[in-house]
Write a structure and sequence with these properties.
The protein is mostly beta strands. The protein is about 0% helix and about 50% strand. The strands form 2 sheets. Strands 2, 4, 5, 6, 9, 10 and 11 form a 7-stranded mixed sheet that branches.
Length: about 120
């Protein structure tokens, strides 16, 4: 079992940066693929980024490529999402997720564990 807790959300203006953190705890954190998803009311949860166990492979949604960076620190059981050049359309609740698989997955169904989410609001 893995427990995930996100932090770092907030209200910022367009063009600003935020760094989200996800702290993992439980029986095992490795080997495990980690991902970030986001959701706005009335819409499905969508993939943002994923990172493999070693951190050597990452994947991003087209909408965030070049602006967001996912990273992890296995010694701290933590995953991060650095978000730069934020846009109003990035406004959402951001969720950290963990998958016991080794592939970089962009489907909600491939992740077994989820955090409670952290709100990110970008004003124009």
């Amino acid at each position: 079992q893995v427990q995930l807790v996100e932090s770092g959300g907030g209200l910022v203006q367009a063009g600003a940066s935020l760094r989200l953190s996800c702290a993992a705890s439980g029986r095992t954190f490795t080997p495990i693929t980690m991902g970030w998803f986001r959701q706005v009311p009335g819409k499905e949860r969508e993939f943002v980024a994923a990172i493999n166990w070693s951190g050597g492979r990452t994947d991003y949604a087209d909408s965030v490529k070049g602006r967001f960076t996912i990273s992890r620190d296995n010694a701290k059981n933590a995953v991060y999402l650095q978000m730069n050049s934020l846009k109003p359309e990035d406004t959402a609740v951001y969720y950290c997720a963990a998958s016991r698989g080794t592939r970089l997955e962009d489907s909600v169904r491939k992740y077994e564990y989820w955090g409670q989410g952290t709100q990110v609001t970008v004003s124009s």
